[in-house]
Amino acid sequence: MPKCEKCLVLESKVRKLEDDLSDEADRAESAERELDRMEEEAALATDNFQRLDLESNVAALYEEIDLAMNRHGAVWTSDSFNVIPRELVHALKEGVAAYEERLDIVKKS
User: Fold this and answer.
1) Within 10 A of 7 (CB to CB), how many other CB atoms are there?
2) pLDDT digits (tens, 9 = 90+) for 76-103
3) Fewer CB near the last or first residue (10 Å), C or N of the chain?
C-alpha cells in the first residue's frame, strides 16, 4: 500500500533528526575524549611544574648551604658534614625533610 505524501515527508524528517542526533552524539563523544586528553595534559603539566619547583628549591637549598659554608670558611667535600656548623646541619636536615614531604605529595597527586 503506497504511503501518503505527508507520511513520506514525516519519515524523511525523522531520518534527518536521527542522523542529526547521531552526529551530535559523535561530536559529544569526541569532545569528551578531547576533554579527557586536556585534563591529562593539565595534570602532567601540573606535575612537571611541581617537580621543577621542587628541583629549584633543592638547588636554592644547596646554594644556601654553599653560601653558609663559605661564610664559615668551610669547603664542600665528602666529609663536609664534619665541618659544617651544627645549626647549618639542622637547617639542612629540615630542608631535606621538607623537600621529601613535598615530593611525596607530588607523587601521590
Assistant:
1) 10
2) 555 555 555 666 667 777 777 777 777 7
3) N
